[in-house]
Model the fold of this input.
Amino acid sequence: MQQENSIRAVIFDLDGVVWRGNTPLPGAQDIFTYLRENNIPFALATNNATASREEFKQRMEDIGVPVSVEEITTSAVATAEYLKGEYPPGTKVIMLGENGLMQAMLDAGLTLVEDPEEAEIAVSAMDRELTWKKLNKMVNAIRRGIPYIATNGDGSFPLENGYGVGSGGIMAALEKASDVKALTIGKPEPRMYEIVMKRLQAKPQSILVLGDRLETDILGAIRAGMKTGLLLTGVTSREMLETSSIQPDLIFEDLFEVIEFLTGGRH
Ligand SMILES: [Mg+2]
Done:
């Protein structure tokens, strides 16, 4: 029997849900095959703004899952869509970030500028080639009183040997130096999910959001009114879950359990 539950669409986080590093997590290929065979639309929604949609599409293909770019939303893409809705084409943006952000800004018809005096909007994301000079440019633009937007507020993220400074860490430096608070788009703000939801054309209660991080994936989905499923294959352990004030609707050991749930099995 199919679809005993009311799920009509699924939104996936990537790191810790679909893959870890370059390794697909158990059931990754199977769940996408299942969704395709059953015509259940899905979207991939990641706070990672460093890579472009095309690069994520390639990474999905590398693990044996063909997807279209339209099925991928990064916090950079969501930021670009937000800006597109608020400002006219050609609006001058000064940015701090990597290829993913640059590509998203250009795709949205925005103009990139280097001069803080010329910029009409400042946008920041994670940048693994961050320099003091780059920070200064942004600070001087933001101090002029133009809108300042950060793709996401993640302070740090796990690396193979420790932690890396994330978009939120860089945002904190810019906020402190400019005395301006950023508007953030990615999870846990509901904005990115709302953009994805529009594309899926499904009611929030009928969308299952799968994530591995309580304070971003799950909290953002709760705020957007969607059904939440925590995967224990990423950053959250059972112990962390027990002590958290953020609680998902469902808990899954791996993606095979999600397939079971979708087919009307246990949970
Ligand atoms: Mg994750």
Notes: The chain has two domains: 9-47+187-262, 76-184. The chain has ten helices and 15 strands. The mean pLDDT is 95. The first helix runs from residue 28 to 37.
